[in-house]
Structure prediction request, 515 residues.
Amino acid sequence: MWSYFANPHKFLRLSDWLAPAFYSLGAACIAYGLWQGLWIVPKDEYQGGDIMRVMFVHVPAAWLAMASYSALAIASFVWFVWRHELADIAAKAIAPIGAVWTAICLSTGSIWGKPTWGTWWQWDDARMMSVLFLFFLFLGYMALRAAMDTRQKAARAGAILAMVGAINIPLIKFSVDLFTSLHQDASVITADGPKMAAVYLTPLLVSAIGHSLLFGGLVMTRMRTEIRERRIARLRSRELEAF
Amino acid sequence: MPDFDKNAAYIWACYALGALLILGTTLQVILAARAARKRLAQLAANDTDGA
Amino acid sequence: MSAAPILAAFRQSLGEAWAGGAGALLPLGFLGGAAVLVPLGIGSDVETLKAVGPGIIWVALALASLVTLERIFQSDAEDGTLDLWLQTGAPVSAIAAAKTIAHWLSAGLPLALFSPLLALMFQAEASPDLLVNAGLYALGSLAFFFWGGVGAALSATVRRGGLLISLIALPLYVPTAIFGALAMSGGPGSAGAPLFLAASTLFACAVAPYAMAAALRLAAD
Prediction:
């Protein structure tokens, strides 16, 4: 199955229409989520009033932060085992975009935290801490790739680091959970809250789908750019050889 | 414009930040894609000239 | 296949780590210097120092591992020793683990043994608990050295790799730092923390050598 997707030509042909489709569908979904979240959905007094409207940008970002690291780890694994170039191109394309969504998750979370918990940063919140370390994993991955002098080396080092990070995530998550469960502060308003009503759930799901589609489109465009960059590098080296 | 309770500034800050980061990223990605396509087209044209 | 190359790697690393300056005194000086800066920074209040002391020692240990690991594989990659290790046919993971353990023995373990003294400087009561804590520091620093070793192996061919190692290793140090600090807090949940600490160190010992081996093969290419 991987071999079918590993062909750059097929990928270019497929993404030629798939990426724009993802962009427009994603934009439509996000617009619907924004409209519902900002205007339609009633405020929830139990969750601190209007501030829960932040949910429609924060929760999709949190979902994408986790999904994008999983995608990075899977792409790295596929490249490491089968050496399909496209998997490495995908990993390289995913990392910065994933880091952006992780940063959105962190910053909106901390803005949400200020009025609800009374602080910008809560060391006792397991989710905040986990996402912060996820962000550092992304940063390390990008820094390592950037430091390598050839493409092959960047791909190999990146794949090793992404996989080491992925197998450490459960342990990091567990330790952070343990740390925060003991330090739990009374000021933290309910982590679970009441069961979410459908008025909130539907726009939230649509927003999450929209963000995912936009993310997918951006990754595809970055992959197309990378494929072209590699062709440019090949053509350049051929020109140099001709001299 | 919707009318929010006391936390309006925080809500707008979140949405503005999200929009800024996402639109900025999209813009950068699209500009980079366009630049790469243009350079590749140029190189390919030169290539056939030389051959 | 014999164990000779692994032993040779161990001895070479031990000599390297021991000879750099004044043996174990150099990392000890680093740890002491880092720890002494803390009361200067946060004030000399007895209760505050008592509370932050164990955590400061964990942080100093993590920093010490990062500082000493920077050149563990880099010099081998530069002078060709790495290629020779790879040609011996001995498992690369075992060689990497031997080198890491040698560095831990000459930098991590002395720091851990030195920790009761530092704890006293941070106003801890003199008690047998300090010796138990020294054991925990030794256990945790082993995990620091193994994960730091992964970062060092990955950035073996990178100039100014030290900064990169810190960035790579930081998220991997989290479980050890949390379990370690928890074990010494004496608060609720601290009873099981030493076991979690031991488990996360074992995990590091089991996984890191293979990651280091993969990274070293890459560095040798």
Remarks:
- Residues 29 and 111 of chain C are 9 Å apart (CA to CA).
- Residues 4-220 of chain C form one domain.
- The mean pLDDT of chain C is 85.
